[in-house]
Amino acid sequence: KLNLKGTNKNMEKLKKINKKYLHIAIIIIGVIFLFLSSFHEDIWFDESYSVAIAKHNFIDIWQITGHDVHPPLYYWMLHIVWMIFGNNVIAFRLFSVLAIVLLGILGYTHIRKDFGDKAGILFSYLVYFLPVMCTYSQEIRMYSWSCLLITLLAIYAYRLYKKIKNKEEKNVNRNIILFGILSILSCYIHYYALVSAGLINFVLLIYIIKNRKNVPHILRNFLILAFVQIILYVPWLIYLKGQVSHVESGFWIYLGMSTLVEVPSFQFRRQLDTNFSFDLNTIIALVSALAMYIYIGLKMYKAKKEKSEMLPGVLAWILYVAVIASVLVVSLVMKQSILFARYLLVITGLYIFGIAFFMAKEKKNWLIILICSIILILGCISNITNIQINYDSSNMKQIEYLRENIKQDDIIIYSNIGNGGVIAAFFPENKQYFYNGEYWDVEEAYKAYGPGMETIYNYEDVLKDYHGRIWLIDSEGCGLYDEIPKDGVKTIVEPTEFVTRYQNYIYTIVLLEKE
Description:
Blueprint: H1 2-35, H2 45-53, H3 58-65, H4 73-85, H5 89-115, H6 117-129, H7 133-136, H8 143-165, H9 172-187, H10 191-210, H11 218-248, H12 257-265, H13 280-302, H14 307-334, H15 348-360, H16 365-390, H17 397-405, E1 411-414, H18 417-426, E2 432-435, E3 453-456, H19 459-464, E4 468-474, H20 479-483, E5 489-499, E6 506-514
Parallel strand pairs: 1-2, 1-4, 2-3
Antiparallel strand pairs: 4-6, 5-6
């Protein structure tokens, strides 16, 4: 009997070691998987804004982004990267990937510890191999870092809940402080993160009020924390009010058929294309996502009798849906949609945890293997497509062309800020002008591209006293070239078109010279 008990213990230890090494292997392979398509300089308009604003100091970033539609924290973080690596697009991109690398590692350091080996392994696996992750992990935007912060915030909220439930006083205040720091950082990085943090704080506060006798002073300390968070967020409220007014007056997001498809299928899509099409990839993503919703729904239904055991997974998915519902309500109040699938990456850590938690409870191993296999296949297809697109030789031709031919005193004019912003990010030393012919209210926000770029409403004032070479950057066609008067102006290089595979941008470049 003693030998049998000893053998059983050794087998358990061996299983633990095997799971540990399997988990580490998944993290290593997953990190390599993410990095495969990340070493490229291609950027599109949204990324160009991040690259351009990164060179400004902290105060200017605060003021400039106050006229945009996002909080400033991510741009501050990117400025620190700029201070270390300079205007390096690849460094900026890898900084975004780093957040998802850390998110996957949470499966080993936090999820495994709190919810078991199986949940931790599945969490890391899903973080690295869900189709959307290898695309949006490398966007030079705030999404990946927002996702990491909200996931950490939810983890520490759950740890506080456990301490209160179990009447544990040890390290409660340290946990509250960590929770508070993550909460205010979330509020300053993205507005979906602000909504998420608000909901998490509210739910936790209700629970603390109901169970305040379990841990002495917990309610008082949490209320102090809430007050500190409010005080720290007050300085941004002035800008938030202006941003809301700006969005209410007209915004580029709209609620349509594409939204109804992209929102539920977001995590299974490689890319959210500007020109939505209901093609095979869309159908596969939607069917896969709906199948996952059905699976989780069935698991939640069957778990009714074991509420306490299933509570973490249920709460994660309730919070995920609650954030989307809150955004929809705000959209209805504002009469302007702010529901956009790409922003869901902010709360995708909750979505992933919910799946990992319920799959870890699955007793049918073949079903777990099937789900993981489908996700791996879709993830590989997604990343292979990314590699083909991101490293396509067409993507940097327009930049290489300008680098070879542009001179220090040349000026650049463009009327399409989409491709113009990309040019501004790569050539900040050349004086540039965005011809805002449609009079968009963007002048303050586009100071991100300054001081090299200015927003103008009449190009004649620029050209009147200027003598020298002028680069015109059009998108498709030669609208700006045809519009500018040719008196005293000669064409040095006829319109040359460049089409990039990355985001399908079109650049029509013309070189003029004014005597």
